[in-house]
Each structure stands twice: as C-alpha cells, then as structure tokens.
Amino acid sequence: MSIRTTFALLTGRITKRLLTTFTGGGSSLPGKIALKISPNIIKDISQHYDVIIITGTNGKTLTTRLITNIFKKKYNTIVSNIQGSNMVQGIAGAFIEHKNRTDEKKFAILEVDEGTLNKVVEDLNPKYIIHTNLFLDQADRYGDVTKTYELLVNAAKKVPDAILLQNGDLPLFNTVELPNERKFFGVDTPVHPPKSQHHCPKCGGTLSYKTYTYSGQGNYYCKSGNFKRPILDYKVTDIIKLSEESSTFRMDDATFKIPVAGLYNIYNALAAYSVAKEYDINNEDIKAALLETERVFGRQERINIYGHTATLNVVKNPVGLNQVLTLIEAVEEPMTLVALLNNRPADGVDVSWLRDGNFESLLSQNITTIKTGGISKEVMTERLVEAGFNPHIIKKYDNLEKIVEDLKHASTDNIQIIASYTAMLEFRKVLKDKKII
C-alpha cells in the first residue's frame, strides 16, 4: 500500500471520528477526503479483500446488511457501507476501517448504486456481484429499465471472473449472454396470479407463469419460443407466514425467519442466503444472523413519536411503493397516514411514478387523518384525492416540524409514514433534533 493511500486512510479515520464526536454520525465526507488524497484508494485496498457487490433497484441496503450480519458469524474482518452510502465516496469511506491484518480472510460487502457501478467495478475486482432486481426507478436519471440493465451488463463484462448471483425470477436478467459464471435465485412457490400482463423481453409476446410473486417476477415462460426462467441454484420453496412484523419461509430444506414484513424482503434474504452458501456458511449461523438483523432506517423503521407507534417507509418507485401499500393494507387498527414527497435529484425530479401507486387499496382501511408534506405535497395530495380519499381528512403542511408537532395529538396510536428518499432524511432529522430518535 502506497504512502499516499496510508495517509488517506489516516486522514479519513480522523475525519470520521471528528464527525462522530461532534455531529453524532458520519457522512460521505471521510471517503471524499480520502479520495482527494489518494484517488486509487479503492483499488489499493480492495485487492486485499473478497469483494461482494450488491446492486439493483430495490433492496440493496437491507441485503447488504443481511449479508454483513451473516458473514460476521464466520469471519472477523469485514468492511461494509451498511448505512447505504453507495456512491464512490461512500465506497471509499467503507474502506477507511481497513486493518492491515494478513492472517485472516477479509471481506468487503458493498452496496453500489447502479449508476456508480461502472466507475468502481474494475478497481473493486469483485468475487461476486448480486443483482437484486430492476424496476422503473428515477426515469429522469436512467431512462427505462433496459438502459439500467445495460449498466449492469457493461460492468459485468469488465470483470469476467466475477460470479453473478442474479434474481432468476426477473425475465430481464435472462436476456443477455455474459462471459461471467452465473447463478440464479428465486421463489419456487405460488403466491398469487399476475394482475396484469407482462411482456416477453425477447419477442414482445405475453409471458405465462407457473408461479408468480409480484411485478413480473416468477417462474415465467414464453409460449412463442424457448424463453423461460433459468434453473434456480437457490430458492424459496415455501412461504409459511407473512405478518405485519415478520416473514417465515423455507429456503431449500430449512426454515428461516426475518424480523421484517413483505414478500420483497424474502427476496433480499434469499440473495443473502445465496452468497452465504457460496462460502459454505451453515444454516444455523444464517438463521441466527437473519433473526438478529435490525430494521434499516426508513425501511419499516419503528419509532415512538410522543407515545404513538409510527412505522416509517421510504418509497422510490411504483414497485416499492405498492409493496409498502400492501403492508399498510394489512394493518387492522385505525391509523394516521403521513405522506411526504420531494422531487430532489435523489428522489427523482419526475414524480409521475406516483400515479402508478395503488393508493386505492387503502380506501377500505380505517385512516382517520392524512398529513401531506414535502416539496411535492400538492402532487401527493392530488393523487390521494384522485384515489378517492375525502379531501376533508387531508391536511397539507409547509414544513415537517409542524407535522411532527401535530403528531403529538394524533387520534390514533398507529401512524404510517411513507416518504420519498430525501423527505425521509429530512423527517428523521426533525425527529433527531427533537430527540425523538
């Protein structure tokens, strides 16, 4: 390791400790400073690690945390960006905790943004790349999903020795031949039939499904040709119980439980299980790690707000939004709904995706009050009224602090909060400033 990189590490660590001491948390700044000092820091350090990259539209942060927790059961030296800082500076920041030990296997488990992947993949030279899924996300940033998949394909071609662990239930992942060894994971049990048609990415015809989960995923096949789901290397064979609090299911021949709800999180657990099995980690360690995993902030995060039980969920695209709405639909008690929408670049400037959210599914719920806020609160309010909610129960707010103050007097114990990415961060900052979290 060069003197420049050694100095960059030292400076990054000092910066991180100062930030932790005086602001109570880190940021991307340590990595940014380290990169300024040593632009090759990622390449210099990552060569000492088995690097596992997690990328895709939804589920990157939780999957990264699940994998990290599992690997900690067997290995001691792990660096990870489990807080979700997935751009170049965040990845550099993860390596700041690098220790010069040579007597044990070291792992770097890294969430990488789809748009950042090609910038870092050769420097990281990963052993594995996990493709979680691809859905329409920030159309103004990436265009359609095929353009996003091109980013993933180009990155994979740059590191042909990397093994790809791909979601086999997603047809798009089976459309391009790659030089890499590929393994597939998926759900091999029926959940419900598709509610809309999904088209074959090869011929444009309508796909048929032997089993189906959500948003075009499942055991698909095209009647017009030979296009079908690949053979799965790792699979969920049974979904035993889905509750508001947790999910219980079988992977291959063993039963597992995760303390988060939603079918989409079973896919995240399956991705983590798949790479763990590649390293021969035993089921007991995997079970324990999955069960011990804490909820990621903004992902089914439980917060006590002035004695009320609030659940905070970040939403970034129609698929993620509809999965969150499905969870809210399962709540049986009266609730207050808080809906926050920004249109900053990190949220996606184009918020037209909100129209594809199935807010109509909540009309039968006992929602006593709705509070809307954020830069695009008017768009959110209009969509809720369009869905059929009584305008008289909707109150618009110009600032998030006022929403938090009014939640003191919420008429329900249960509060459900959905927020776009930057709105979620701003809302949590208000909660932190008020010492609620």
UniProtKB/TrEMBL annotation:
The active site is at 350. Residues 54-171 form the Mur ligase central domain. It is an enzyme of class 6 (ligase). Residues 315-424 form the Lipid II isoglutaminyl synthase (glutamine-hydrolyzing) subunit MurT C-terminal domain. It catalyses: beta-D-GlcNAc-(1->4)-Mur2Ac(oyl-L-Ala-gamma-D-O-P-Glu-L-Lys-D-Ala-D-Ala)-di-trans,octa-cis-undecaprenyl diphosphate + NH4(+) = beta-D-GlcNAc-(1->4)-Mur2Ac(oyl-L-Ala-D-isoglutaminyl-L-Lys-D-Ala-D-Ala)-di-trans,octa-cis-undecaprenyl diphosphate + phosphate + H(+); beta-D-GlcNAc-(1->4)-Mur2Ac(oyl-L-Ala-gamma-D-Glu-L-Lys-D-Ala-D-Ala)-di-trans,octa-cis-undecaprenyl diphosphate + ATP = beta-D-GlcNAc-(1->4)-Mur2Ac(oyl-L-Ala-gamma-D-O-P-Glu-L-Lys-D-Ala-D-Ala)-di-trans,octa-cis-undecaprenyl diphosphate + ADP; beta-D-GlcNAc-(1->4)-Mur2Ac(oyl-L-Ala-gamma-D-Glu-L-Lys-D-Ala-D-Ala)-di-trans,octa-cis-undecaprenyl diphosphate + L-glutamine + ATP + H2O = beta-D-GlcNAc-(1->4)-Mur2Ac(oyl-L-Ala-D-isoglutaminyl-L-Lys-D-Ala-D-Ala)-di-trans,octa-cis-undecaprenyl diphosphate + L-glutamate + ADP + phosphate + H(+). Pfam families: Mur_ligase_M, MurT_C. Pathway: Cell wall biogenesis; peptidoglycan biosynthesis. GO terms for molecular function: acid-amino acid ligase activity; ATP binding; carbon-nitrogen ligase activity on lipid II; metal ion binding. Keywords: ATP-binding, Cell shape, Cell wall biogenesis/degradation, Ligase, Metal-binding, Nucleotide-binding, Peptidoglycan synthesis. The lipid II isoglutaminyl synthase complex catalyzes the formation of alpha-D-isoglutamine in the cell wall lipid II stem peptide. The MurT subunit catalyzes the ATP-dependent amidation of D-glutamate residue of lipid II, converting it to an isoglutamine residue. Forms a heterodimer with GatD. Belongs to the MurCDEF family. MurT subfamily. This is Lipid II isoglutaminyl synthase (glutamine-hydrolyzing) subunit MurT. The gene is murT.
